[in-house]
Amino acid sequence: MKLHFTSGYHSKADRQTERANQTLEQYLWMYCTYQQDNWDVLLPLIEFAYNNAPNTSTGVSPFFTNKGYHLNITVHLEYHLASQKAHNYVSNLNDIHQFLCDEIKAAQEAYKTMADN
Predict the structure, then answer these.
(1) How far apart (Å, rounded) are the C-alpha atoms in residues 103 and 110?
(2) Where is pLDDT greater, at 17 or 1?
(3) What's one GO MF term for it (predicted)?
């Protein structure tokens, strides 16, 4: 483990923060509208998805790391949702969750390929 000193104005020096920002940017890029006027609505969904997605190096989610248990995020769409806003929230959450699952699988395959060579 190496110690890296950084200044508050040079984010490139802080690799962990830079990687988290890169992930956040990727999520926003995938789900923002062309006008980029819905990013503020997406932030809670992105935060939820990020905190519940397993990290590729540790295999556990940030939420599990902090709390010691996994959230039950099972959504049953067969139940009648009270509002269209709730339905949209669930739909967006499912889309983000599926995207994250696909990204995790792709990252695991890439790591496996590099390790096998």
Answers:
(1) 11
(2) 17
(3) nucleic acid binding
